[in-house]
Amino acid sequence: MKTAIVLGATGGTGQVVVSELLDRGIEVIAFGRSRSKLNKLMEKHHCNPKLSYKLGDIFDYQTIVEAVGGAEVIFQCANVKYQEMEEKLHLLGESVMKAAEKLEKRIVIVDGIYVYGHQTAKGDENHPRHPHTKKGRIRMEFEQLIFSNKWKKAKPLIVRLPDYYGSTSQNSYLQPTLEGMAANKTSIFIGNLKTPREYVYLPDAAKMIVNIAEKDDSYGENWNIPGTGLISGKEIIKIARQITGNRKMVIPLTKNAIRFIGLFDSFMREIVEIMYLTKEGFVLSGEKYEKRIGSIPSTSFREGLEETLRFIMSNKN
Known about the structure:
Blueprint (H helix, E strand, L loop, with lengths): L2 E5 L4 H12 L3 E6 L2 H10 L6 E5 L5 H8 L4 E4 L8 H19 L2 E6 L22 H13 L8 E6 L2 E3 L9 H8 L4 E4 L6 E5 H12 L8 E3 L5 E2 L1 H12 L5 E4 L1 H7 L4 H6 L4 H5 L6 H6 L8 H16 L1
Parallel strand pairs: 1-2, 1-4, 2-3, 4-5, 5-6, 6-10, 7-9, 8-12
Antiparallel strand pairs: 9-11
């Protein structure tokens, strides 16, 4: 791969994919709808000559077609708000796949784990799809769209991430906790503090995503992007206190608390149905990746949290 385009390049996952591609000497087109955010991305990379950007609308496939140019692989990192998932996710999928089909391109779709529902078996790519939530069912329909037989020339694959964190993270469950602690404030933790959960450090995820994308035989399949083991909220907070010096209270938000807040906040209202993940967890198996790609990048939680928190603190000052 010598050239690539990243859709949703200014988002949390899009930014780390852009960085990883540039680190490998790959020419990158950053695609998005906000000129100011794209300019900030250019500045972040010191106007790297291998990085350019194109303005466009992810829901208008023709703007994607016009932006792709000679890019060999499309990385689909754009997403929709929880509140708009039912209305817009299918439209997003149709748009990006239509563009990939017209251009006969490889396309890497970044997605999550809602399609699985409760964990009932080893968390590999063959885990049964039994979503019990609205978002899970929407995501399963999305997967079916991506791998639909109606696409004859596009070559898609899906990478699935658990919850994540990192300096570019914007909407993860862990974000309000880290931002509050970095700002030396009382903060919240979504879910209970005792359940060991899986989180992937976004720069590690980007390495795995690009490694998968570079393999010719990866396409047409689902791929897991596992984290570095499991960690509880209590352990995260302990590490964060050591890094930030913040000793203020961290308030765990239970399902009932989220439900109450949701009466006044549409985003929090949408979180209620997927709170099962904060209680039960879901652990992704990386066996397929290790067998066919190689060793899994595994930044320690301490190193990843330190990098993330120091970035947040430096940008608060």
